[in-house]
Specification:
Structural class: mainly alpha
Number of strands: 0
Shape: globular
Largest sheet: none
Distance between the termini: 43 Å
Helix content: over 70%
Radius of gyration: 20 Å
Order of helices and strands: HHHHHHH
Length: 190
């Protein structure tokens, strides 16, 4: 028991020292991660489940990657958001709205890319605002292009209903599996 208390005290001391050395830009990046996670939870989860302790727990899970960006917290937070979306659309039978799909995709991607940036930035890093600005500009360009392609694909899906749509879906899935296998193979080589 004493060992646990000593370890917690040492960890709290290190956290206090890191916060004392923190600079503005890494702090703002982490605040952006927390904001993206919290808004994603609010958009994804059904309103009846966002009350009291549920909201507090979901908010803590969604904002955890801002505190520890190098761990598995970002994956867990994204899975919690996706689980909320699935609960809302299946259990609560919510209508699937394009704005919610695009908002969730945007928030999850921005949270993911900001988590990657925060993992590379120590709390006390002196970073030019241009670095973060260019990072966000690239991320927003990806989001915009993805949103436009999603709307175009949905428009085409209505016209390509039937066997052509099934073939296109299977080809897309095969391409995704192939790309995943290729990346896994390349990572094993390195």
């Amino acid at each position: 028991m004493i060992v646990v208390i000593t370890a917690l005290t040492a960890r709290a001391g290190r956290a206090r020292a890191a916060l004392g050395r923190a600079t503005a830009i890494p702090f703002l990046v982490r605040a952006g991660i927390a904001l993206c996670g919290l808004v994603a939870v609010l958009v994804a989860w059904p309103q009846p489940l966002l009350a009291g302790r549920n909201l507090a727990l979901l908010a803590l899970i969604a904002m955890y990657p801002a505190v520890a960006p190098r761990g598995r917290g970002a994956t867990v937070a994204a899975l919690v958001v996706v689980a909320g979306w699935l609960v809302d659309t299946t259990v609560f039978d919510a209508r699937i709205a394009l704005w919610r799909v695009l908002a969730l995709a945007t928030l999850l991607y921005l949270g993911h890319t900001l988590t990657a940036l925060a993992a590379a930035l120590p709390f006390d890093a002196v970073v030019n605002l241009d670095v973060v600005g260019l990072w966000l500009a690239r991320a927003l360009a990806v989001v915009l292009i993805s949103a436009v392609l999603t709307v175009v694909a949905l428009g085409l899906a209505a016209e390509l209903a039937g066997p052509a749509f099934l073939v296109a879906t299977l080809a897309g899935l095969a391409g995704a599996v192939g790309a995943t296998l290729l990346v896994a193979r390349l990572l094993r080589r390195a």
